[in-house]
Amino acid sequence: MKLSNETRDVLKNFASINSNIVFNGGNEIKTMSEAKNIMSTATVAETFPDNLLGIYDLNEFLGVMSMFDDPELQFSADYNSVKIVQDRKSVNYYFSDPSILTSPSKVITMPDPEVTLTLTADNIAQMRKAASAL
Predict the structure, then answer these.
(1) Residue 26: phi, psi to the nearest 5?
(2) Residue from 63, 57, 26 nearest 44 by CA
(3) pLDDT value for 125
(4) DSSP characters for the chain?
(5) What is the mean pLDDT of residues 4-11?
(6) Which of 6, 9, 36, 71 is 20 to 30 Å apart from 47, CA to CA?
(7) What pLDDT shows up at residue 119?
(8) What is the largest CA-CA distance in the chain?
(9) Residue 110 in this model has a pLDDT that exceeds 90
(10) Rounded to whole angstroms, how far apart are CA atoms 54 and 32?
(11) Per the confidence metrics, is the pTM higher than 0.90?
(12) Cα dihedral across residues 52, 58, 61, 67: positive or negative
């Protein structure tokens, strides 16, 4: 399996919420903060194995991934590690026990929003420019 740039970006964002993560299988990944006051869910292009895969230090894992230009992830038969491979280079990265990691255990259903808004990157850039001028 190869991770798309979009999935890597999602994982980088998730690392700012919580340094560890548990993959529950499928193409939906979730995280929540240690204080359990922030939760995020993303649907990604890749489908992860149905076994619980825990990463204790997500920033470290992303750092290892960044040592490669276009790595492939090869999961071990017992799903206790992943081999990150490209050409003749490889790194074995061992998973953590998911029971010691902070991860969402149930689905939270939010009520319908009262107000919706679309905020583009261009809108944010304009606001930053205005804020710096003022």
Answers:
(1) 85, -165
(2) 26
(3) 95
(4) ----HHHHHHHHHHHHH-S-EEE-SEEEEEEE-TTS--EEEEEEEEEE-SS-EEES-HHHHHHHHTTSSS-EEEE-TTSSEEEEEETTEEEEEEPBPGGGS----SPPPPPPPS------HHHHHHHHHHHHH-
(5) 94
(6) 36
(7) 92
(8) 58
(9) no
(10) 14
(11) no
(12) positive
Query: Phi and psi for 124 in degrees, rounded to 5?
Result: -65, -40
Phi, psi of 119 (to 5 degrees): -120, 110
Cα(78)–Cα(60) distance, rounded to whole angstroms?
A: 22
Cα torsion 13, 17, 19, 21: sign: negative
> Under a CB-based contact definition with an 8 Å cutoff, are residues 54 and 95 in contact?
yes
As a whole number of angstroms, the distance between CA 24 and CA 127 comes to: 38
* Domain residue ranges in the chain: 5-133
Average pLDDT, the chain: 92
- What gap in Å lies between CA 34 and CA 18, rounded to an integer? 6
